[in-house]
Amino acid sequence: MYIRRGVPYVIFWTLIVVFFYITFKQFSVVRKSSPVYFRKINSSQIDRGNLLNLNPFRYVINTDCDTSFLVWVVTSYAADVSARSALRRAYSESELEELGVRRIFLLALLHDDVQNKTHVTQNAILDEARRYNDIIQGNFIEAYKNLTYKHVMGLKWATQYCKNASYIMKMDHDIVVDLYKIIDVIKAASIPHNIVMGYVLRNMSPIREPMNKWYVTRDEYIADFYPDFLSGWLYVTTLKTAKDLVDVAQIYPKYFWIDDLFLTGIIREELGVKFHDIHEIYTTNNEYLNCCLKARTKKFKCDFAVGPNGGDTELQVRFKDFAKYCRSNCFPRSKKFSVTNTCIVAWHDPNLGRGVAQVSPLQLNVV
Ligand SMILES: *[C@@H]1O[C@H](CO)[C@@H](O)[C@H](O)[C@H]1NC(C)=O
Ligand SMILES: *[C@@H]1O[C@H](CO)[C@@H](O)[C@H](O)[C@H]1NC(C)=O
Ligand SMILES: *[C@@H]1O[C@H](CO)[C@@H](O)[C@H](O)[C@H]1NC(C)=O
Ligand SMILES: *[C@@H]1O[C@H](CO)[C@@H](O)[C@H](O)[C@H]1NC(C)=O
């Protein structure tokens, strides 16, 4: 349609301007609507669930920290000595020192009856701490729903005691890691301030099913979606960003027990800290890690550097040996030979099929 000059011409351009104005206005409204509870907080509003009231960060056991590169904090259940032992054997203190890494296990207190049942007494933990000098213990009881205390404690301790460190890596003790690869990734990414690096979990919703381990009541978390957050299996950030997270977490009015979601989701969003997603080096299936070990003779690098141990604490030791060997001896896999393509679930294996079919999604073989 031909638009003549004059009145219709003016109306046409007015409509265009109004259209852009409305569009822009909507965008800015969307941006502004993200929650900023942080600014509304004042100390008289902090309720009983808050981290400050318990004083969980009085260290029952403490130690020092003198690294200028990376602090590696590992949340560890106090009674699970074997997971700590496997990690210590996998990455010895002297090797960590060479790599510029200080590793610390984060423990809490064991109930008397747990101490009696497991024979991991507080005295045994004190002995372990004296021997290895790599334990800090918080002033709260070991419990699933106290994991947020432990997580905050780890970040807080690092910012208090590792003043010269550049980065902090938080990990769960049942996670297998290729530390060399992580260090390469950290150095390549040269993570700036206000970035957290790890496996980003997006658009997750609270589980409202009471029988589920992850059941979250509306009282604990009211909205239908969580902010995006990082898997607590393993993530890395700068010490400066960790300090910001701790500062906000400590005055945040509502404590939320899912620790990675609380710190790298809710608190991170308050601060406007952004993600660096490295999910491609994570696997959720420990059998893929075992497949990598079996392919050692083929000198294939593993596609994954982080994964669960699947209850096999020794996998950490074996995977580290493999990773160290592969550092200089292996080459990357092509797509065709990727771990996910070559590590086949057993029921696809033509050799299987005599007698009763043993169908298990965890039975994987190297082709
Ligand atoms: C803090 O909150 C309390 C209770 O909501 C309110 O009475 C008080 O005025 C607030 N103080 C400041 C400094 O905003
Ligand atoms: C940090 O580095 C300085 C200078 O190298 C050193 O004097 C200090 O002891 C270090 N601090 C820690 C906690 O390692
Ligand atoms: C644990 O053992 C100690 C010493 O044997 C005993 O005094 C205490 O009552 C026990 N506690 C529990 C909760 O079983
Ligand atoms: C968490 O730790 C506190 C402080 O020790 C304790 O009172 C509480 O019972 C613990 N929480 C759970 C769920 O055990």
Structure summarized in a few sentences:
The chain is of the alpha/beta class. The protein has helices at 7-32, 37-40, 51-54, 81-90, 93-99, 112-118, 122-132, 147-161, 179-189, 239-251, 259-271, 286-294, 315-329, 339-342, and strands at residues 70-75, 101-109, 135-141, 167-172, 175-177, 195-201, 229-238, 274-277, 306-308, 343-345, 364-366. It has 2 domains: 1-30; 45-280, Spore Coat Polysaccharide Biosynthesis Protein SpsA, Chain A (Alpha-Beta Complex), CATH 3.90.550.
CATH topology of the largest domain: Spore Coat Polysaccharide Biosynthesis Protein SpsA, Chain A
Hey, roughly how much beta strand do the residues contain? Answer: 15-25%
- Envelope shape: globular
Biggest sheet statistics: 7 strands, mixed
CATH class assignment of the largest domain: Alpha Beta
What are the distinct ligands in this entry?
A: 2-acetamido-2-deoxy-beta-D-glucopyranose
Please describe what this structure looks like.
- The chain is of the alpha/beta class.
- The protein has 2 domains: 1-30; 45-280, Alpha-Beta Complex (Spore Coat Polysaccharide Biosynthesis Protein SpsA, Chain A), CATH 3.90.550.
- 41% of the residues lie in helices and 17% in strands.
- The chain contains 14 helices and 11 strands.
- It has helices at 7-32, 37-40, 51-54, 81-90, 93-99, 112-118, 122-132, 147-161, 179-189, 239-251, 259-271, 286-294, 315-329, 339-342, and strands spanning 70-75, 101-109, 135-141, 167-172, 175-177, 195-201, 229-238, 274-277, 306-308, 343-345, 364-366.
- The strands form 3 sheets. The chain has a 7-stranded mixed sheet, sandwiched between helices.
- α12 packs across α13 (315-329).
- The chain is globular, with a radius of gyration of 25 Å.
- The relative contact order is 0.12.
- The model is unreliable at 25-53 and 345-367 (pLDDT under 50).
- The structure holds 2-acetamido-2-deoxy-beta-D-glucopyranose (4 copies).
